[in-house]
Model the fold of this input.
Amino acid sequence: MRLAAGFTALLLVVSLSIVTLGQAPPAAAPAGQGGQRGQAAQGAVGQGLAGPPGAANANAAANNGRGQGAAGNRGGGNGRGAAAGPAEPTPRWPDGHPRLGALPGQKGLWNGGGSTADATTPYQPWARAVSQVRRDEAMEPHTRCKPSGGPRQFLTPYGVDFTELPELQRVFIMDVGGPHTFRTIYTDGRPHPKDLTPSYYGHSIGKWEGDSFIVDTVGFNERIWIDRGQAPHTEKLHLIEKFTRTDMNTMTYDLTVDDPGAYTATWTKSSSMRFSAASELFEYVCQDNNYAPELLVGTGEHVDRISVIVP
Amino acid sequence: MKAVRVISLLAIFAIAISAFAQEGYPLSGTWSGDWGTSAKEQDRNQTTIVMTWDGKKLTGLVDPGPDSATFKVATLDSAKWTVHLEYDLKDKAGKPVPFVVDGKLENAASRKNRRIVGTFTHGTTKGDFKIAMDQ
Done:
């Protein structure tokens, strides 16, 4: 009897251990909806944030894992609700051009900035129709952990990091969300290759024009959305992105979309990113507990869009 | 055990197929299916069509190989998701005969089960036509 009870207890302990190791808790689910948003909300309420709803707050809470909330995207503070005030000036490199990322020894990620097409966009008829279907069905590749190029890269709830490596003449834009990957922007003056194999992020080259960093990208494949679905694209897509850090906490993002396969004319869109000084890259595995496979090979036919944020 | 392996392979295959879903112009890509005058196997004709969108015009190569054909007319009405295709296919005597397809594009912007279902006319012969996008 004693042996049986001991064996049962042992089985219970082993079972619990397996569950603990094999399953992430709900708060860590990649959908970015339940637990993380709940944590973010708690932190936000406690600190009286001035940041935008959803993204930045979720980012901060998810990042520190303690629901402390963000420093706001305005204060550039220490992650404990620094008072919003005049932003510090644009940080600069010794050669004078703005720094795009965090300062040495400090944290900081960018949020926002992915606004794209709207009713005024010069869609071709098919692209307008596809855009509408996408909004209705919301079967976004990003939810299945696809690398998401162009402006979609900035639309994760966890922010992105700009890492400049002047000695290598490259800039990396690193994602937390999605497949936890990065985009490389070459700043060594090279042109685009002539025979590109289309890829998720395309081929990016960058240069400075005054205080603006201009990124020219071609070579996208058609397996992704470049935003939340508003702007269908083809392999003819040519993006020009202009990043201008106007102060410590603000970056304007000017997007020019040239895709004769989907639009009748080139179009532009401007938006703004904000710096979350309390945040930094953290490990996030989109594939972990991702329910999209059920949508891919199972019977699921829709994505839960209760949340405004898809990772 | 063998069944498990087969199921595993099928699952991997299905995921791999889905991984290459085409999100751009809804008709761009390779399609395969069949057409015929009845559901009987002997009345079905397998077909493969490669469609390309250049931003203004939809072109297509039908049944790549010695008896291939190219689109003469190809239109997509995205308001109704209807597709109209015209090309020549050889009849039993080897003579090119106009082949006209009128179909409906299903799941136009979805990654799953995108297909064209409709009817064909080949000279005086009529029947059903259905092709699905190879992901």
